[in-house]
């Protein structure tokens, strides 16, 4: 008979707290959005129990694990749950929805709380994310904001949202600006699984009856792959082409990458990654421009010699939606100019 304490991984709403009892390392790799980590085994304890299981016996490992889990559950109750009322409803999960989550669930139910457990644990949730992402991606009308590097596509996208539009901001979810210079100082990217969960969670929040704006991307944002159903849907969608002047693009990039002008130790190794395509002399010249603070010239040369040729090469190959693309001229990419482009895009799509 089915245990009515178990719920499917799609039934995440209506709970006061979602508790992930896996180790901090497992939690950091990926977890259900909004979950809190109350590990019943630490990273080190899980290694000790696993080693004992393999090298001594399952029985000895279970005894050891039970003692550790009991102590940790007691600590979480004392530190995190003593203020919870009888009506409090937590949802608990571990890797497969077995012993670790079951141990906490039994204790919380003995106390009197209606504690449920995700059937199949994180593994089942992960399968749900992958299946549901494909379903969700097929439900939306995506409009892709295209344009050469420096056209303020991300800022336009965010301004679309500020003006009431729906967006899927993949670069923010990936903690990366999407180019060889795109990794953000002090902001590591999430894991691949974590990124996929963030994308699924965002899609799950969107209204399929309204258009969704997305910035044009390659298959990867930094080190992360965009989920295949999402990139497939994007590439079959119409583009909104931003055509910004060189002057506007250079000025925008100087504002958008202030840290590149403040830290040559961050910039120079990234420029060096372009050596295979640009050659040693060009890279040395760009290093010299950076060291002498000639930022407008460096940015313009990067655009004209590297990024624009790449964009022309890929333009039209990745996005096969309705042609001709509507264009949005932009001689000004100040905050006011960006807001104007976003407003024109919203009018064009919603009219």
Would you kindly provide a written description of the structure presented here, covering whatever features stand out?
The chain has helices at residues 24-29, 43-55, 58-81, 99-111, 121-137, 153-162, 170-174, 192-205, 228-235, 246-256, 264-272, 275-278, 280-291, 295-314, 335-350; strands spanning 6-7, 17-20, 36-37, 90-93, 116-118, 142-147, 166-168, 212-215, 220-221, 224-225, 239-244, 327-330. The model has no long low-confidence stretch (mean pLDDT 91). It is of the alpha/beta class. Helix 6 crosses helix 15 (335-350), helix 10 crosses helix 14 and helix 11 packs antiparallel against helix 13. Helix content is 52%, strand content 12%. The protein has 15 helices and twelve strands. The N and C termini lie far apart (55 Å). It has two domains: 6-125, Rhodanese-like domain (Oxidized Rhodanese, domain 1), CATH 3.40.250.10; 138-350, Rossmann fold (3-Layer(aba) Sandwich). The longest helix has 24 residues, at 58-81. The strands form three sheets. It has a five-stranded parallel sheet. A five-stranded parallel sheet has the order 7-8-6-11-12, with helices on both faces. Strands 9-10 form a two-stranded antiparallel ribbon. Strand 2, helix 1 (24-29) and strand 3 form a beta-alpha-beta unit.
At a glance:
The protein has helices at 24-29, 43-55, 58-81, 99-111, 121-137, 153-162, 170-174, 192-205, 228-235, 246-256, 264-272, 275-278, 280-291, 295-314, 335-350; strands spanning 6-7, 17-20, 36-37, 90-93, 116-118, 142-147, 166-168, 212-215, 220-221, 224-225, 239-244, 327-330. With 351 residues, it is an alpha/beta fold.
């Amino acid at each position: 008979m089915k245990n009515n304490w178990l719920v499917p991984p799609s039934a995440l709403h209506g709970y006061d707290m979602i508790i992930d009892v896996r180790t901090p390392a497992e939690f950091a790799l990926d977890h259900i959005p909004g979950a809190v980590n109350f590990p019943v085994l630490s990273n080190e304890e899980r290694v000790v129990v696993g080693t004992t299981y393999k090298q001594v016996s399952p029985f000895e490992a279970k005894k050891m694990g039970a003692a550790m889990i009991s102590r940790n559950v007691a600590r979480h109750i004392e530190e995190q749950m003593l203020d919870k009322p009888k009506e409090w409803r937590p949802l608990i999960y571990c890797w497969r929805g077995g012993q670790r989550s079951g141990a906490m669930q039994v204790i919380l139910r003995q106390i009197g709380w209606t504690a449920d457990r995700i059937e199949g644990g994180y593994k089942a949730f992960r399968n749900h994310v992958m299946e549901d992402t494909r379903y969700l991606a097929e439900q939306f009308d995506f409009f892709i904001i295209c344009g050469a590097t420096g056209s303020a596509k991300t800022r336009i996208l965010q301004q679309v949202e500020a003006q009431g539009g729906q967006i899927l901001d993949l670069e923010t979810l990936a903690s990366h600006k999407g180019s060889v210079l795109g990794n953000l100082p002090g902001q590591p990217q999430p894991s691949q699984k974590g990124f996929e969960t963030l994308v699924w969670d965002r899609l799950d929040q969107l209204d399929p009856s309204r258009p969704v704006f997305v910035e044009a991307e390659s298959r990867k944002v930094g080190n992360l792959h965009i989920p295949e159903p999402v990139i497939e849907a994007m590439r079959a969608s119409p583009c909104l082409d931003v055509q910004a002047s060189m002057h506007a693009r250079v000025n925008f990039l100087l504002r958008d990458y202030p840290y590149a002008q403040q830290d040559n130790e961050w910039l120079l190794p990234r420029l060096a990654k372009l050596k295979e395509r640009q050659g040693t002399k060009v890279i040395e010249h760009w290093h010299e421009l950076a060291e002498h603070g000639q930022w407008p010239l460096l940015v313009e040369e990067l655009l004209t010699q590297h990024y624009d040729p790449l964009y022309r090469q890929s333009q039209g190959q990745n996005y096969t939606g309705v042609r001709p693309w509507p264009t949005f001229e932009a001689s000004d990419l100040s905050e006011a100019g960006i807001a104007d482009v976003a407003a024109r895009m919203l009018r064009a799509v919603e009219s």
